[in-house]
Amino acid sequence: MKSIDTLTPCPCGNPAGYTECCAPLHDGVAIAATAEELMRSRYSAYVLRREDYLLASWHADTRPASLRLAAQQPAPSWLGLEIRRHEAVDDDHATVEFVARYRLGGGRAQRQHETSRFVREQGRWYYLDGELKN
Predict the structure, then answer these.
(1) How many domains would you assign to the chain?
(2) In what order do the strands lie in the sheet with 109-121?
(3) What is the rounded CA–CA span in Å between residue 48 and residue 40?
(4) Domain assignment of residue 4, yes or no
(5) How far apart are CA 124 and CA 121, in angstroms?
(6) Is residue 7 part of a domain?
(7) In sequence order, what E strands does the chain have?
(8) Does 123 fall in a domain?
(9) What is the pLDDT of residue 2?
(10) What is the pLDDT along the chain (134 residues), one digit of tens a residue?
(11) Which secondary-structure segment (H or E) carries 71?
């Protein structure tokens, strides 16, 4: 797991410090109020290699056993998150379209453009799955 200066702007793009943005979600002190907030916190968890949080926020029906983030070589260098669209399907289902930019090693910047599906169960949002876009 990577560390972060608590005064640094949050990796998710919120200018508030990490301790006021995604850290309470990562530490289990708070839960995401919306699917977009969960998406942002999951992006920050990828940046910080918080596999524990990523797995805990992934719905049990689609959750992998492990992400093996520590074994990724080269590790991605995350460059930024752009939320393109957040749509509530109903009270307990939502989609978030986003673009996450990253670089592997010294290579060219790449992007992951995805529409993710989220479900809320017992008041808590979970990542269900996603569809990659070109």
Answers:
(1) 1
(2) 76-90, 93-104, 109-121, 124-133
(3) 12
(4) no
(5) 5
(6) no
(7) 76-90, 93-104, 109-121, 124-133
(8) yes
(9) 63
(10) 666 666 578 999 998 889 999 999 999 999 999 999 999 999 999 999 999 999 999 999 999 999 998 888 888 999 999 999 999 999 999 999 999 999 998 889 999 999 999 999 999 999 999 999 97
(11) none
Kindly list the distances between the CA atom of residue 118 and the CA atoms of 35, 62, 79, 85, 89, in Å, as whole numbers in the listed order.
6, 11, 24, 13, 10
Residue 116 included in any domain = yes
Residue 78 sits at φ, ψ, to 5 deg, of -80, 135
Tokens (6 digits) for 87 = 């749509």
User: Domain range spanning residue 79?
Assistant: 18-133
Q: How far apart, in Å, are the Cα atoms of 55 and each of 21, 45, 75, 114?
A: 19, 10, 18, 18
CATH of residue 97's domain is 3.10.450.50
